[in-house]
Amino acid sequence: MRQPNRSLTSSSPGRATGHRTRRLVLLADGNRAHRRMLSIQLERAGYRVAEAADGATALKICREQHPDLILSDSLLMNLSGLELCRAHRDMARQGYGYFILLTSSTERADIAVALGAGADDFLVKPISSAELLARIRAAERVLDMHDDLAAANRELQSALERLNEAQEQMTAELREARKLQQAMIRERQRSFGPFRVSLLMRPAGMIGGDFVGFHQLDDHAVGLHAVDVSGHGVASALLTARLAAQIDGLAQDRHLSPAGLVSALNDMMLDGPLTDVYLTMVYARLDFETHRLRLVQAGHPHPFLQRADGRIERVGRGGLPVGVLEGARFDEIEVTLAPGDRLLIVSDGITDASGCRGELLGEDGLRAIMQLNAPLTGHALLESMCWSVAAFASGERADDLSAVLIEHLPPAPVLAGPGGTPG
Q1: Were both Cys, which of 88, 152, 288, 423 would link to 417 (CB 3.0–4.6 Å)?
Q2: What residue ranges carry the coiled-coil annotation (predicted)?
């Protein structure tokens, strides 16, 4: 049974409906005297009435005028009452049309057939005026509910359209914010003499709370940072821009050690307006001449140092996150990167990636990825690591992925010249 939404241009004459028009009743009956008698009763009750002497005329009125109620004799010329009912139900219309079949039969089988054809109600002839109006009033209540539901659906549709427009605008703004956040990484890779630094940042959504970067301090040193702000979404992403500027500003003070820089950032976080936000990070300074890397681990996952011979060492002692405890102490660790060594710093979006059975990738999984990808370097290693994490998590990603890769490139092989001497 087709029950499309109807427009609210008609309503019950008995309701407080303002300027809404009266409901239209189609009266289909081949007996002119009987039809006129019913028509007069309906008009006196406040209804507009359209009359049809046969089924074909009644069906035409249904198509053109969409009456609210149809009173149809079961015995009509050209088209029976049941055929008219079926054709009416198959018709596309603006709203619901309540169909009452007028019949002389009281057989249950005939009534079942009428209801099966789509009739809502039936009246047995002869029809009293009181029973007719009572059935019409009952039909009014059904139509009123349809009208109210249609109005609610239109309001819901309008609200949904406004919500979609707001969502589209928000999505467009988030795309622009993503571009700005990605622009915070001015370079994805750079070489510093025998060292090369590569960066990876993949937000779980449009924007994220992870950010990585490096800044050259002088001719023989570079500062590096990997940060993960608590939470997700716009608030965390906005904070990353502020923190990136603060880290760059603090790094300009060459007298400030890595531990001192993280402590100063901790004080700024606790003095700022967002005291319920914290972050984990690794901040490091690499000296190109001594090959020494001094780093602070503040609640971030442990960096992994892969030696030239393939051995993997865990670096750091954990430490407190930044922005949690006033006066927190942050310890420095120093490692030396020999030719062929590399240090990988990742966010917990990688180590906490969850497999299909709920197991975490963890440090053992990261070690396995580094061993498997030992022949790869630079961005190729980081991209392969992302692919491995995605495969482990079956493509699901609940957190941002970020990483910093520091490589001490091995010296290029010396090619032999003619006669076996170096060229």
Answers
A1: 423
A2: 142-183
